[in-house]
């Protein structure tokens, strides 16, 4: 198979694509892959590091308000469509997969115009503007949340889950749980100021609880709080770090997750059957993280603590209410396992094979 994948800007569009490519290579080792992104997006660093060929187009996001910049965006869109067509005529893909982000717009649009089989993957519960635009033009639509299905034509939409779920589930298959109940608190790669402040307030109480807390502050914040952290460095119930490098292994060993509710995070957490306390970021377009989390709250796999309600007391209470209540924990664990999609890449692969043939 020859496949072009496009998507970028943020990790939520890139890591699911890379997880799917990893599975695809396992199934079809001779697959030829080309990734199309932008020079400014995270994909310009992440994709080459993964050993995947990257080509770029010059495109920028559409302003949601009236702006002269949108004239420039329109010009760049059609220029990128032309550039993408040239790339495709040279590479000759059997299928083009878009995973979201504004770069996917002109690339998938170009493929559709060239009559190349196309599929998009929508990772969030509320679709982004790019995938809403592409929905009528592509052959298939894969979604990571059931809530997203309502926004797309039902006859070509399938629930697949997020490919990161299968990658995490496979990697964690042989990992044993910590004996002491453990919660992982993580505010994302850069950390979250509100979460850090709540954690500092909660430290005296967390230090004496029956469960262990593994906390990552984010590298940019760690030095600011180091004096507070150092007071507890000998406490066996606390493991405080700037960053978590082995997140998959750590989550697999733990019993509970507390943090933001990005689509990839939720896919990983549910693939492992972990209950979760989600604190949706208020700084995300269309309040996507709240919508993401709500689907799993409705299934009994998670609870939400609103960002404005997060403090030391609410943080400790949310964790304790789950980890120190065996019956509730087990109910949430079962719900999370049921909601998880540990075969997400296989499901997406089946759709790709269907249209490429």
Quick gist of this model?
This protein has 357 residues and is of the alpha/beta class.
List the helices and strands and how they pair.
Elements: E1 2-6, H1 11-27, E2 32-37, H2 43-49, E3 54-56, H3 69-91, E4 95-98, H4 104-113, E5 118-122, H5 129-134, E6 140-143, E7 157-159, H6 163-171, E8 182-186, H7 193-206, E9 212-216, H8 219-230, E10 238-241, H9 247-253, E11 256-259, H10 263-271, E12 276-278, H11 288-298, E13 302-304, H12 312-323, H13 326-339, H14 344-356
Helix pairs in contact: 1-6, 1-14, 3-4, 6-10, 6-14, 7-12
Q: Keywords, please?
A:
single chain, 357 residues, alpha/beta, Rossmann fold, seven-stranded parallel beta sheet, six-stranded parallel beta sheet, 14 helices, 13 strands
Number of helices: 14
Using the CA coordinates, give the radius of gyration.
21 Å
CATH superfamily of the largest domain: Glycogen Phosphorylase B
Q: How many beta strands in the DSSP annotation? A: 13
Oligomer: single chain
Mean pLDDT: 94
Shape: globular
Low-confidence runs of at least 5 consecutive residues: none
Order of H and E elements: EHEHEHEHEHEEHEHEHEHEHEHEHHH
CATH class of the largest domain: Alpha Beta
Strand order of the largest sheet: 3-2-1-4-5-6-7
Secondary-structure arrangement, i.e. CATH architecture of the largest domain: 3-Layer(aba) Sandwich
Describe this structure in words.
Belongs to the glycosyltransferase 28 family. MurG subfamily. Pathway: Cell wall biogenesis; peptidoglycan biosynthesis. It is a peripheral membrane protein. The protein has 357 residues and is of the alpha/beta class. The protein has 2 domains: 2-162 and 342-356, Glycogen Phosphorylase B (Rossmann fold, 3-Layer(aba) Sandwich), CATH 3.40.50.2000; 170-339, Rossmann fold, CATH 3.40.50. It is 46% helix and 15% strand. The strands form 2 sheets. Strands 3-2-1-4-5-6-7 form a 7-stranded parallel beta sheet, with helices on both faces. A 6-stranded parallel beta sheet has the order 10-9-8-11-12-13, sandwiched between helices. Helix 10 (263-271) links the parallel strand 11 (256-259) and strand 12 (276-278). Helix 1 (11-27) crosses helix 14 (344-356), helix 3 crosses helix 4 (104-113) and helix 6 (163-171) packs parallel to helix 10 (263-271). The radius of gyration is 21 Å and the shape is globular.
């Amino acid at each position: 198979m020859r496949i072009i994948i496009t998507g970028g800007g943020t990790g939520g569009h890139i890591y699911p694509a890379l997880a799917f490519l990893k599975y695809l290579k396992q199934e079809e080792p001779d697959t030829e892959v080309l990734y199309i992104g932008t020079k400014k997006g995270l994909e310009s660093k992440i994709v080459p590091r993964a050993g995947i060929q990257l080509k770029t187009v010059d495109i920028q996001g559409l302003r949601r308000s009236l702006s002269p910049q949108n004239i420039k965006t329109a010009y760049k869109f059609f220029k990128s469509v032309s550039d993408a067509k040239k790339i495709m005529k040279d590479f000759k893909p059997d299928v083009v997969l878009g995973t979201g982000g504004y770069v996917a717009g002109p690339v998938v649009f170009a493929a559709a115009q060239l009559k190349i089989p196309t599929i998009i993957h929508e990772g969030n519960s509320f679709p982004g503007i790019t995938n809403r635009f592409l929905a009528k033009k592509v052959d298939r639509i894969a979604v990571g949340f059931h809530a997203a299905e309502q926004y797309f034509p039902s006859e070509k939409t399938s629930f697949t889950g997020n490919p990161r779920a299968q990658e995490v589930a496979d990697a964690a298959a042989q990992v044993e749980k910590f004996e002491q109940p453990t919660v992982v608190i993580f505010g994302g790669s850069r950390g979250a100021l509100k979460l850090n402040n709540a954690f500092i307030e909660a430290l005296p109480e967390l230090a004496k609880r029956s469960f262990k807390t593994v906390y990552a502050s984010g590298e940019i914040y760690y030095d600011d709080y180091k004096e507070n952290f150092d007071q507890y460095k000998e406490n066996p119930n606390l493991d405080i770090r700037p960053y978590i490098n082995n997140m998959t292994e750590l989550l697999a060993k733990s019993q509970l997750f507390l943090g933001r509710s990005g689509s990839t995070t939720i896919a990983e957490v549910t693939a492992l059957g972990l209950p979760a306390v989600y604190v949706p970021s208020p700084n995300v377009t269309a309040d996507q993280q709240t919508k993401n989390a709500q689907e799993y709250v409705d299934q009994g796999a998670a609870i939400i603590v609103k960002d404005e309600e997060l403090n030391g007391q609410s943080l400790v209470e949310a964790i304790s209410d789950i980890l120190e209540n065996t019956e509730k924990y087990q109910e949430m664990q079962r719900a999370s396992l049921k909601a998880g999609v540990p075969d997400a890449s296989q499901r997406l692969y089946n759709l790709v094979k269907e249209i490429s043939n």
